[in-house]
Design brief:
The protein is of the alpha+beta class. Helix content is 31%, strand content 26%. Strands 8-7-6-5-13-12-11-10-9 form a nine-stranded antiparallel beta sheet, with no helix packed on it. The radius of gyration is 37 Å and the shape is elongated.
């Protein structure tokens, strides 16, 4: 229920700005026919009930003083001023879409209380939800009681004609009913007076006002806490009535306006009963209606056209969200792009069993939208990132640690302190980059939902150094026994002709994590195979060579499924290396037309999504399923061009 309350609150904030805009335009259209003002309230209704919309350059939220950057992210279709998890934030932040007010509102929110069982803001939200539910219930019960009471008052009404009834228990006409609406009028009306009133009520029925007003009241019941929503409901009801008045005048002629006004005033005088209530049409601002009738003139054609155009423009501006301009990466972030190596451990969480020394080898490559972490064996992890830069507050930095007095690095001595939030707060783990004067720190944030004191805290901080040259290109083939039985059950009667030819799973970790491919290799024959979706595929030749020597994932054809690229070697007398890939769409091995003689090759993936081939040397070998391979000289790139995957001998920079 709290989630629903926050969604309603977010919609109500957006609707508040739209209501103010409609009220302003309504003043400008004061002399225009009221049907145009009445139509404008549909966009308010839309904003009150629909949390999503599309973006447009016409949106009023694109102009000053609005700044919806915090309320609308690039992929969002809804404006979210109050985040759903605001009650659980250590430092709650909300937005109202106006920068000058954002800080004022956020600073008034209570911070998290680690020692308490729940955060103060959680209590506020819970209490607010209860009060909101109570208000909704009261209004809905009131409307039902009013409806039932009105039904009882008209129980003795007498049919006058078709769906027109007369009653001596009412003093003003109205329409009541949803599926079969009926017009109720008081007894004793004169013939001319009755004619005017029936014309007015008939126009209500034609416009389906008997449905619109109850729907509007239902929506108001959920936004009862917003005073502008009440003002919008009252103003909408006035415009509804006055648009009907103008329709009647256009039919009977303005010469009869005084008689029509007299009939309205007669209903307003000596009322003995309350108005019909929110689900029917009773007297509505008779004074304003009379004044509008007295000054009403049939609009000139150009006035009607301009009014219609103005209404459409306002509706388009108020119903749409602002355009989301992808903010260019800060120039300061561009200076961070490149490859780095581990230098030293700055901090490690006491709960971690890992302690790394200066001999630890790990590499980090930062591109415009990727962090690529490469371990000593050449295994890679690719993480989508952004560069959300803020200055680092010393106290806030300290509060990010599980235990603030144990091994916390001191950043007070650094003059320039910047933090880049690289990954989404919902990601796990979260990565941050710290730029402290000339130093670069890479931090990993651990999420601990079971911890009632701190749901996230620093897990590790490494100081990293930018590489002057290129990052080492290497890979490791390491055999394991995982899923071997499943592979053998499918391969069945393979015989390479060697005794004690044992098969191993050589699938690299990053391929396991990002695909369903499993690669197997025999330790004596070097025969290599792919297991994919229950089928076994041989991976190139193997006799006399090393079999598969390196592997890589890439979706070069952009079909949404990564191909498996691999290098392999064979030939006892004349050593040859080749490159090929497995297409998951065609479910077949596709060789690429290149042969590297008297040597092996290594595949590496590039920042632009292409792959590169390097001449390579194998070392630290203990059989065909356990060795290291390091790239030496560049050979060519594998790219997608002219509708197919091909080899490009010119290296893509």
């Amino acid at each position: 229920m709290e989630t629903l309350f926050l969604k309603v609150l977010n919609m109500s904030i957006t609707a508040t700005y739209v209501i103010l805009a409609v009220l302003l335009i309504r003043l400008l259209l004061k002399r225009a026919p009221k049907k145009y003002s009445y139509l404008l309230w549909t966009v308010v209704l839309f904003r009150l009930v629909c949390p999503v919309s599309f973006s447009s350059e016409l949106s009023i939220f694109n102009i000053n003083p609005f700044d919806m950057t915090s309320a609308q992210k690039s992929s969002d279709v809804a404006l979210s001023y109050v985040p759903a998890d605001v009650g659980y934030m250590e430092f709650p932040r909300v937005t109202v879409g106006i920068p000058t007010l954002n800080t004022l509102v956020s600073d008034s929110l209570p911070a998290a209380a680690p020692a308490a069982s729940v955060n103060p803001l959680q209590i506020w939200i819970g209490l607010g939800t209860m009060i909101w539910c109570l208000g909704v219930a009261v209004l809905l019960i009131y409307s039902m009681v009013a409806y039932i009471g009105l039904r009882r008052r008209i129980a003795t009404a007498v049919r006058l004609d078709n769906d027109i009834f007369e009653s001596d228990n009412i003093r003003s006409p109205f329409v009541l009913g949803f599926i079969k609406p009926r017009i109720y009028i008081p007894f004793g009306l004169g013939e001319q007076e009755r004619k005017y009133i029936l014309q007015h009520e008939a126009y209500h029925l034609k416009k389906k006002d008997h449905l619109i007003k109850p729907i509007a009241f239902l929506v108001l019941s959920f936004h009862w806490f917003n005073p502008l929503a009440w003002l919008a409901f009252i103003s909408m009801a006035k415009d509804m009535e006055m648009s009907c008045d103008e329709k009647v005048l256009s039919e009977i002629g303005t010469v009869n306006r005084k008689e029509y006004c007299t009939s309205l005033l007669s209903f307003a005088a000596n009322r003995r009963f309350p108005s019909a209530g929110p689900l029917a049409f009773g007297e509505t601002s008779v004074r304003e209606r009379v004044m509008n009738i007295l000054r009403f003139k049939a609009p000139k054609r150009w006035v009607a056209v301009l009014s219609a155009i103005a209404c459409m423009a306002v509706a388009a501006a108020c119903a749409t969200n602002p355009t989301v301009n992808e903010a260019p990466k800060p120039k300061a972030a561009e200076g961070l792009y490149g490859s780095y190596s581990f230098e030293k451990q700055v901090y490690m969480n006491p709960l971690s069993s890992l302690y790394v020394s200066e001999g630890y080898k790990e590499y980090y490559t930062f591109t415009e939208n990727l962090l690529i972490i490469t371990d000593e064996a050449g295994n890679q992890r690719k993480i989508a990132i952004d560069y959300d830069r803020t200055t680092v507050d010393e106290q806030e930095f300290k509060q990010g640690f599980m235990m603030e007095n144990m091994g916390v690095p001191d950043i007070a001595s650094y003059k320039e302190r910047y933090q880049y939030v690289l990954t989404s707060p919902s990601a796990s783990p979260v990565y941050r980059l710290y730029q402290l004067d000339g130093e670069i720190w890479l931090a990993k944030i651990h999420k601990d939902t079971a911890n009632i004191l701190k749901s996230e805290y620093f897990w590790s901080i490494f100081k990293i150094n930018k590489l002057e040259g290129e990052m080492p290109r290497k890979a490791t083939i390491a055999g394991a026994q995982g899923n071997v039985d499943a592979f053998l059950a499918l391969q069945k009667n393979f015989d390479a002709g060697y005794d004690a030819d044992t098969v191993y799973n050589i699938t690299p970790e990053y391929i396991k994590e990002n695909s369903e491919y499993m690669i197997f290799k025999y330790d004596t024959s070097a025969a290599s195979f792919l297991l994919y979706e229950g089928e076994v595929y041989p991976l190139g030749e193997w006799f006399g060579g090393f079999g598969v020597t390196s592997m890589a994932l890439a979706d070069l054809d952009s079909d949404g499924r990564s191909e498996l690229y691999f290098t392999y070697s064979w030939g006892s007398g004349l050593h040859r290396s080749h490159v090929a890939y497995f297409s998951p769409a065609a479910k077949q091995i596709v060789p690429l037309d290149y042969t590297h003689m008297n040597g092996d090759m290594l595949l590496t993936d590039n920042h632009d999504g292409s792959l590169s081939l390097f001449a390579a040397a194998i070392s630290s070998q203990s059989g065909f399923v356990n060795f290291e391979i390091a790239g030496t000289d560049f050979i060519l790139d594998i790219v997608y061009a002219d509708g197919h995957i091909s080899l490009n001998p010119v290296k893509q920079e």
